Amino acid sequence: MSKQVYYRELGLANTREMFQKAVSGGYAIPAYNFNNLEQLQAIVAACVETASPVIVQVSKGARNYANETMLRYMAMGAVKMAREMGSQIPIALHLDHGDSFELCQACIESGFSSVMIDGSHLPYDDNVALTRKVVEYAHEHDVTVEGELGVLAGIEDEVQAEHSTYTKPEEVEDFVAKTGVDSLAISIGTSHGAFKFKVKPGEEPPPLRFDILYEIEKRIPGFPIVLHGSSSVVPEYVELINQYGGKMEGAVGVSEEQLRKAAASSVCKINIDSDGRLAVTAKVREYLAQNPAEFDPRKYLGAARSELVRLIKHKNKEVLGSAGQA
Ligand SMILES: O=C(CO)COP(=O)(O)O
Ligand SMILES: O=C[C@H](O)COP(=O)(O)O
Ligand SMILES: [Zn+2]
Ligand SMILES: [Zn+2]
Predict the structure, then answer these.
(1) pLDDT at residue 277 above 80?
(2) b/e for 69-79, b at 16 or more Cβ within 10 A?
(3) 61 CA distance to ligand 2 centroid (A)?
(4) Has the ipTM of the complex gone over 0.90?
(5) Assigned architecture for domain 6-320
(6) Distance between CA atoms of 266 and 216, rounded to whole angstroms?
(7) Ligand 1 test: best mutation among 115, 183, 228, most atoms within 8 Å of CB?
(8) Which one of 169, 262, 305, 323 is at 20 to 30 Å from 43 when CA atoms are compared?
(9) Ligand-binding site membership of 94 (annotated)
(10) Which atom of ligand 1 is least distant from the CA of 193?
Protein backbone atom coordinates (compact mmCIF):
# COMPACT_ATOMS: atom_id res chain seq x y z
CA MET A 1 0.00 0.00 0.00
CA SER A 2 2.18 2.85 1.29
CA LYS A 3 5.28 3.96 -0.56
CA GLN A 4 8.05 5.56 1.46
CA VAL A 5 6.76 7.57 4.42
CA TYR A 6 9.38 10.27 4.63
CA TYR A 7 8.21 12.12 7.74
CA ARG A 8 8.55 9.11 10.04
CA GLU A 9 12.31 9.50 9.85
CA LEU A 10 11.89 12.98 11.31
CA GLY A 11 9.72 11.66 14.16
CA LEU A 12 6.65 13.59 12.98
CA ALA A 13 2.98 12.54 13.01
CA ASN A 14 0.29 13.18 10.42
CA THR A 15 -2.96 14.82 11.55
CA ARG A 16 -5.40 11.89 11.26
CA GLU A 17 -5.41 10.73 14.87
CA MET A 18 -5.02 14.26 16.27
CA PHE A 19 -8.17 15.36 14.43
CA GLN A 20 -10.24 12.30 15.39
CA LYS A 21 -9.50 12.94 19.06
CA ALA A 22 -10.05 16.70 18.75
CA VAL A 23 -13.44 16.36 17.07
CA SER A 24 -14.73 13.83 19.60
CA GLY A 25 -13.12 15.70 22.52
CA GLY A 26 -14.58 19.11 21.63
CA TYR A 27 -11.26 20.95 21.37
CA ALA A 28 -9.03 22.16 18.52
CA ILE A 29 -5.41 21.47 17.64
CA PRO A 30 -3.34 24.66 17.44
CA ALA A 31 -1.58 25.30 14.12
CA TYR A 32 1.19 27.84 14.64
CA ASN A 33 3.23 29.25 11.74
CA PHE A 34 6.99 29.47 12.14
CA ASN A 35 9.78 31.16 10.20
CA ASN A 36 12.63 31.27 12.69
CA LEU A 37 14.33 29.58 15.62
CA GLU A 38 12.75 31.60 18.42
CA GLN A 39 9.20 30.97 17.20
CA LEU A 40 9.77 27.23 16.96
CA GLN A 41 11.49 27.03 20.34
CA ALA A 42 8.54 28.86 21.90
CA ILE A 43 5.98 26.60 20.22
CA VAL A 44 7.74 23.44 21.41
CA ALA A 45 8.37 24.71 24.94
CA ALA A 46 4.78 25.91 25.39
CA CYS A 47 3.17 22.80 23.88
CA VAL A 48 5.39 20.47 25.93
CA GLU A 49 4.57 22.42 29.11
CA THR A 50 0.84 22.26 28.37
CA ALA A 51 0.96 18.68 27.01
CA SER A 52 -0.73 19.79 23.80
CA PRO A 53 -0.59 18.14 20.39
CA VAL A 54 0.58 20.70 17.85
CA ILE A 55 0.82 21.44 14.14
CA VAL A 56 3.78 23.58 13.11
CA GLN A 57 3.15 25.09 9.72
CA VAL A 58 5.24 26.58 6.97
CA SER A 59 3.95 29.00 4.34
CA LYS A 60 5.49 29.65 0.94
CA GLY A 61 6.69 32.92 2.43
CA ALA A 62 8.42 31.02 5.23
CA ARG A 63 10.16 28.75 2.71
CA ASN A 64 11.46 31.77 0.86
CA TYR A 65 12.53 33.52 4.05
CA ALA A 66 14.21 30.71 5.94
CA ASN A 67 15.16 28.16 3.25
CA GLU A 68 13.11 24.98 2.91
CA THR A 69 15.95 22.66 3.92
CA MET A 70 16.64 24.68 7.04
CA LEU A 71 12.96 24.62 8.02
CA ARG A 72 12.71 20.86 7.62
CA TYR A 73 15.71 20.23 9.85
CA MET A 74 14.39 22.76 12.33
CA ALA A 75 11.18 20.73 12.56
CA MET A 76 13.22 17.60 13.17
CA GLY A 77 15.11 19.52 15.86
CA ALA A 78 11.79 20.52 17.38
CA VAL A 79 10.78 16.88 17.73
CA LYS A 80 14.15 16.00 19.28
CA MET A 81 13.87 18.93 21.68
CA ALA A 82 10.40 17.79 22.81
CA ARG A 83 11.63 14.20 23.34
CA GLU A 84 14.65 15.39 25.30
CA MET A 85 12.25 17.32 27.49
CA GLY A 86 10.62 13.95 28.21
CA SER A 87 7.51 14.68 26.17
CA GLN A 88 5.80 12.49 23.58
CA ILE A 89 3.40 15.15 22.24
CA PRO A 90 2.50 14.51 18.59
CA ILE A 91 3.98 17.14 16.25
CA ALA A 92 2.85 17.52 12.64
CA LEU A 93 4.78 19.49 10.03
CA HIS A 94 2.24 21.07 7.69
CA LEU A 95 2.44 23.05 4.45
CA ASP A 96 0.20 26.11 4.83
CA HIS A 97 -1.63 27.31 1.69
CA GLY A 98 0.05 25.04 -0.83
CA ASP A 99 -0.86 26.39 -4.26
CA SER A 100 0.25 23.66 -6.66
CA PHE A 101 0.57 19.89 -6.93
CA GLU A 102 4.33 20.27 -7.43
CA LEU A 103 4.82 22.22 -4.20
CA CYS A 104 2.77 19.69 -2.22
CA GLN A 105 4.74 16.84 -3.81
CA ALA A 106 8.08 18.48 -2.95
CA CYS A 107 6.98 18.96 0.66
CA ILE A 108 5.75 15.37 0.97
CA GLU A 109 9.07 14.10 -0.40
CA SER A 110 11.05 16.27 1.96
CA GLY A 111 9.35 15.13 5.15
CA PHE A 112 6.12 17.07 5.68
CA SER A 113 3.45 14.95 7.38
CA SER A 114 0.53 17.10 6.23
CA VAL A 115 -0.16 19.52 3.38
CA MET A 116 -2.82 22.04 2.47
CA ILE A 117 -3.80 22.40 -1.15
CA ASP A 118 -5.65 25.69 -1.36
CA GLY A 119 -7.73 25.59 -4.53
CA SER A 120 -10.39 27.84 -3.06
CA HIS A 121 -9.82 30.57 -5.63
CA LEU A 122 -10.37 28.17 -8.54
CA PRO A 123 -13.67 27.26 -10.16
CA TYR A 124 -15.28 24.43 -8.17
CA ASP A 125 -14.46 21.59 -10.59
CA ASP A 126 -10.83 22.70 -10.89
CA ASN A 127 -10.54 22.87 -7.11
CA VAL A 128 -11.91 19.30 -6.92
CA ALA A 129 -9.51 18.01 -9.59
CA LEU A 130 -6.39 19.66 -8.10
CA THR A 131 -7.27 18.61 -4.55
CA ARG A 132 -8.02 15.04 -5.68
CA LYS A 133 -4.62 14.83 -7.40
CA VAL A 134 -2.79 15.97 -4.26
CA VAL A 135 -4.79 13.57 -2.06
CA GLU A 136 -3.93 10.58 -4.27
CA TYR A 137 -0.23 11.34 -4.10
CA ALA A 138 -0.22 12.29 -0.40
CA HIS A 139 -2.13 9.22 0.75
CA GLU A 140 0.39 6.93 -0.95
CA HIS A 141 2.86 8.37 1.57
CA ASP A 142 0.44 8.45 4.52
CA VAL A 143 0.43 12.26 4.46
CA THR A 144 -2.85 13.98 5.36
CA VAL A 145 -4.39 16.72 3.21
CA GLU A 146 -6.38 19.86 4.00
CA GLY A 147 -8.55 21.33 1.23
CA GLU A 148 -10.48 24.58 1.18
CA LEU A 149 -13.94 25.69 0.06
CA GLY A 150 -14.94 29.34 0.21
CA VAL A 151 -12.64 32.34 0.10
CA LEU A 152 -11.48 34.14 3.24
CA ALA A 153 -12.67 37.69 2.87
CA GLY A 154 -10.53 40.73 3.39
CA ILE A 155 -12.34 43.64 5.00
CA GLU A 156 -12.75 45.29 1.63
CA ASP A 157 -14.22 42.25 -0.17
CA GLU A 158 -16.81 41.81 2.52
CA VAL A 159 -18.76 44.89 1.48
CA GLN A 160 -19.35 43.81 -2.10
CA ALA A 161 -22.20 41.43 -1.37
CA GLU A 162 -22.98 40.32 -4.94
CA HIS A 163 -21.07 37.07 -4.61
CA SER A 164 -20.71 35.72 -1.11
CA THR A 165 -17.29 34.34 -0.36
CA TYR A 166 -18.54 32.20 2.53
CA THR A 167 -18.38 28.44 2.12
CA LYS A 168 -21.55 27.07 0.51
CA PRO A 169 -22.76 24.24 2.78
CA GLU A 170 -24.44 22.53 -0.18
CA GLU A 171 -21.02 21.90 -1.75
CA VAL A 172 -19.18 20.27 1.15
CA GLU A 173 -20.48 16.67 0.91
CA ASP A 174 -19.68 16.48 -2.78
CA PHE A 175 -16.23 18.07 -2.32
CA VAL A 176 -15.23 15.76 0.52
CA ALA A 177 -16.52 12.66 -1.29
CA LYS A 178 -14.88 13.50 -4.63
CA THR A 179 -11.51 14.62 -3.28
CA GLY A 180 -10.95 12.31 -0.30
CA VAL A 181 -9.47 15.16 1.77
CA ASP A 182 -8.78 14.57 5.45
CA SER A 183 -9.92 18.03 6.60
CA LEU A 184 -11.66 21.05 5.14
CA ALA A 185 -10.91 24.74 5.65
CA ILE A 186 -14.03 26.88 5.48
CA SER A 187 -14.86 30.57 5.29
CA ILE A 188 -17.29 31.84 7.97
CA GLY A 189 -16.06 35.39 8.48
CA THR A 190 -12.44 35.09 9.56
CA SER A 191 -9.62 36.59 7.48
CA HIS A 192 -5.84 36.72 7.53
CA GLY A 193 -3.78 39.45 9.16
CA ALA A 194 -4.26 42.02 11.90
CA PHE A 195 -7.16 44.03 10.41
CA LYS A 196 -9.99 41.54 10.21
CA PHE A 197 -13.03 43.75 10.72
CA LYS A 198 -13.87 47.39 10.26
CA VAL A 199 -15.24 48.53 13.63
CA LYS A 200 -15.73 51.93 15.21
CA PRO A 201 -13.94 52.49 18.54
CA GLY A 202 -15.80 50.71 21.35
CA GLU A 203 -17.78 48.54 18.91
CA GLU A 204 -17.65 44.73 18.90
CA PRO A 205 -16.66 43.00 15.65
CA PRO A 206 -19.50 41.02 14.01
CA PRO A 207 -19.85 37.38 15.13
CA LEU A 208 -18.62 34.54 12.92
CA ARG A 209 -21.25 32.77 10.79
CA PHE A 210 -21.90 29.84 13.12
CA ASP A 211 -25.11 29.15 11.20
CA ILE A 212 -22.96 28.17 8.18
CA LEU A 213 -20.60 26.09 10.34
CA TYR A 214 -23.50 24.17 11.92
CA GLU A 215 -25.13 23.59 8.53
CA ILE A 216 -21.81 22.13 7.32
CA GLU A 217 -21.60 19.94 10.45
CA LYS A 218 -25.06 18.59 9.72
CA ARG A 219 -24.02 17.59 6.20
CA ILE A 220 -20.67 16.00 7.11
CA PRO A 221 -21.02 15.02 10.78
CA GLY A 222 -17.71 14.59 12.60
CA PHE A 223 -15.62 15.65 9.61
CA PRO A 224 -12.59 17.74 10.67
CA ILE A 225 -13.07 21.45 9.91
CA VAL A 226 -10.25 24.02 9.83
CA LEU A 227 -10.40 27.74 10.61
CA HIS A 228 -7.82 30.03 9.05
CA GLY A 229 -7.39 33.66 10.06
CA SER A 230 -8.05 32.93 13.71
CA SER A 231 -5.76 35.33 15.55
CA SER A 232 -7.43 37.42 18.22
CA VAL A 233 -5.13 40.35 17.44
CA VAL A 234 -4.46 40.61 21.19
CA PRO A 235 -5.31 44.23 22.12
CA GLU A 236 -2.47 44.46 24.69
CA TYR A 237 0.09 43.84 21.93
CA VAL A 238 -1.48 46.40 19.62
CA GLU A 239 -1.40 48.94 22.46
CA LEU A 240 2.28 48.20 23.24
CA ILE A 241 3.20 48.50 19.57
CA ASN A 242 1.43 51.85 19.28
CA GLN A 243 2.91 53.03 22.60
CA TYR A 244 6.47 52.29 21.43
CA GLY A 245 6.47 53.93 18.05
CA GLY A 246 4.32 51.57 15.99
CA LYS A 247 1.29 52.45 13.93
CA MET A 248 -1.46 49.83 14.06
CA GLU A 249 -4.63 51.79 14.82
CA GLY A 250 -7.78 49.81 14.10
CA ALA A 251 -6.17 46.38 14.29
CA VAL A 252 -8.81 43.86 15.40
CA GLY A 253 -9.25 40.09 15.41
CA VAL A 254 -11.58 37.23 16.36
CA SER A 255 -12.58 37.23 20.05
CA GLU A 256 -11.46 34.38 22.26
CA GLU A 257 -15.10 33.67 23.09
CA GLN A 258 -15.86 33.05 19.40
CA LEU A 259 -12.82 30.80 19.08
CA ARG A 260 -13.80 28.79 22.18
CA LYS A 261 -17.22 28.22 20.68
CA ALA A 262 -15.65 27.12 17.38
CA ALA A 263 -13.18 24.79 19.11
CA ALA A 264 -16.07 23.01 20.85
CA SER A 265 -17.62 22.19 17.45
CA SER A 266 -16.17 20.07 14.65
CA VAL A 267 -13.53 22.76 14.11
CA CYS A 268 -10.43 20.77 15.01
CA LYS A 269 -7.58 22.95 13.65
CA ILE A 270 -7.23 26.66 14.39
CA ASN A 271 -4.55 28.65 12.52
CA ILE A 272 -2.67 31.34 14.39
CA ASP A 273 0.12 33.41 12.89
CA SER A 274 -0.59 37.12 13.36
CA ASP A 275 -0.83 36.96 17.17
CA GLY A 276 2.69 35.56 17.30
CA ARG A 277 3.94 38.31 15.00
CA LEU A 278 2.29 40.94 17.21
CA ALA A 279 3.76 39.44 20.39
CA VAL A 280 7.27 39.53 18.94
CA THR A 281 6.94 43.07 17.57
CA ALA A 282 5.41 44.39 20.80
CA LYS A 283 8.14 42.91 22.99
CA VAL A 284 11.03 43.89 20.70
CA ARG A 285 9.75 47.47 20.51
CA GLU A 286 9.25 47.62 24.26
CA TYR A 287 12.64 46.08 25.04
CA LEU A 288 14.59 48.33 22.73
CA ALA A 289 12.74 51.45 23.91
CA GLN A 290 13.50 50.58 27.54
CA ASN A 291 17.09 49.43 26.89
CA PRO A 292 18.44 51.80 24.23
CA ALA A 293 22.06 50.75 24.75
CA GLU A 294 21.40 47.02 24.29
CA PHE A 295 22.63 45.52 21.02
CA ASP A 296 22.67 41.77 21.75
CA PRO A 297 19.80 40.25 19.71
CA ARG A 298 19.50 37.45 22.28
CA LYS A 299 18.20 40.02 24.74
CA TYR A 300 15.32 41.43 22.72
CA LEU A 301 14.59 38.20 20.86
CA GLY A 302 14.71 36.42 24.21
CA ALA A 303 12.10 38.82 25.57
CA ALA A 304 9.97 38.18 22.49
CA ARG A 305 10.36 34.41 22.83
CA SER A 306 9.30 34.46 26.50
CA GLU A 307 6.15 36.35 25.52
CA LEU A 308 5.45 33.82 22.74
CA VAL A 309 5.63 30.98 25.27
CA ARG A 310 3.10 32.78 27.48
CA LEU A 311 0.82 33.47 24.53
CA ILE A 312 0.86 29.88 23.25
CA LYS A 313 0.26 28.39 26.71
CA HIS A 314 -2.69 30.73 27.10
CA LYS A 315 -4.13 29.74 23.70
CA ASN A 316 -3.75 26.02 24.40
CA LYS A 317 -5.21 26.22 27.91
CA GLU A 318 -7.85 28.92 27.75
CA VAL A 319 -8.96 29.14 24.12
CA LEU A 320 -8.45 25.95 22.07
CA GLY A 321 -8.67 23.45 24.92
CA SER A 322 -5.78 21.37 23.55
CA ALA A 323 -3.79 21.51 26.81
CA GLY A 324 -3.54 18.14 28.50
CA GLN A 325 -4.78 16.28 25.42
CA ALA A 326 -1.45 14.85 24.21
O1 LIG B 1 -4.65 31.39 8.72
C2 LIG B 1 -3.53 31.64 9.07
C3 LIG B 1 -2.39 30.88 8.50
O4 LIG B 1 -2.79 30.05 7.46
C5 LIG B 1 -3.19 32.68 10.09
O6 LIG B 1 -4.24 33.54 10.40
P7 LIG B 1 -3.99 34.88 11.26
O8 LIG B 1 -3.48 35.92 10.32
O9 LIG B 1 -5.33 35.28 11.81
O10 LIG B 1 -3.04 34.55 12.34
O1 LIG C 1 -1.95 32.50 5.73
C2 LIG C 1 -0.96 33.18 5.84
C3 LIG C 1 0.02 32.92 6.94
O4 LIG C 1 -0.21 33.81 7.99
C5 LIG C 1 1.44 32.99 6.39
O6 LIG C 1 1.73 34.26 5.97
P7 LIG C 1 3.01 34.55 5.00
O8 LIG C 1 2.61 34.13 3.64
O9 LIG C 1 3.24 36.03 5.15
O10 LIG C 1 4.15 33.73 5.54
ZN1 LIG D 1 -7.60 30.22 0.86
ZN1 LIG E 1 -4.43 30.72 6.30
Answers:
(1) yes
(2) eebbebbbebb
(3) 6
(4) yes
(5) Alpha-Beta Barrel (3.20)
(6) 9
(7) 228
(8) 262
(9) no
(10) 8
